[in-house]
Amino acid sequence: MLREMKMASANQIKMLVKHFMKKDDARFLSVVLQIAAHEAKIGHTKFADELRFLVEKAKHSMNSESGTPKVLSASSAQMTQPSSDLFSVTHPTINFNNIVLSDDIKLKLNRFLDENRNSKKIRQFGLVPKRHLMLYGPPGTGKTMSASVIACELHLPLFIVRMDSLMTKFMGETSAKLRSIFEYISQHRGVYLFDEFDTIGSKRSISNDVGEVRRVLNTFLQLLDEHHSDSLIIAATNHKEILDSALYRRFDDVIEYKNPSDNDVYELIDSKFLSFDLRITDKENLVNVAKGLSYAEISKSCDDAMKIAIINDNNNIEQELLESIFNERKSYHK
């Protein structure tokens, strides 16, 4: 294992020198982000954060000189219009080893990743890897996390389109912003997440302002059809039932997310308490109490139990405490 880690570091140094000699700044910075992700994984989080900060600073400098749309920081991005913050951008470090999802979803995500890892090989045969993905399901079931995992596994930045900035009341402005976003997507490879996608993808007959909704949706469909770059576009929604039917054939894959199964519930709980002693007396009852909660709600409940233990200088967590927190969380649904 240690030998493999040293070999990875040596290869990364060689790639840095190679890209530096070619003056390929984008690939040079991409390798630096790979090193940062590796350092974070082995616990060197401060060093990883410093590397990411330097990369963002370098990108800001490069964009300022080139006049291209500007990525300002790790938390915001900006198009050529100074007042239009249309993205938030991060460099995720969470990978498949850090998440719990159903086997069916993992299979589909892995297939999506495999095609993009082998993009050049696939294109040599005149085929195109999957680049457009739609995720739907209840809140907290892992849709946004899946986008983060895809970005991490492919060593790409994750851009989240800010719907509050995209949607405006002025006729034609939303469509113009969409065109700017897709122009940016074509010029800057990354994973682009349109969260709460039903905001622009809703059926063209359910709005009072049918004309404008139709224009925005038609613009998106046209831009998606015309998108040929290696950037990946992910749409996520909690409300699949209100999406326009014309959307589905535009996406390479559509994945349904559900609340966790019994096995997923226990696997998630078990993965959360690696540094604590969770004293389970009745596994079946614990799972039954958590049933109905989303992945995010179960994870937050486990975090709450650990924080209580930390405050009380206790490494042991009783099942009764965790069950009471689950029940409290379920009471929010009423």
UniProtKB/TrEMBL annotation:
GO molecular function, one term: ATP hydrolysis activity
Name of one Pfam family that matches: AAA
AAA+ ATPase domain span: 129-261
SMART domains in the cross-refs: AAA
InterPro entries for this protein: AAA+_ATPase (IPR003593), AAA_ATPase_domain (IPR050168), ATPase_AAA_core (IPR003959), P-loop_NTPase (IPR027417)
SUPFAM superfamilies, per database record: P-loop containing nucleoside triphosphate hydrolases
Protein's recorded name: AAA ATPase central domain protein
Organism: Photobacterium gaetbulicola Gung47
Top-level taxon: Bacteria
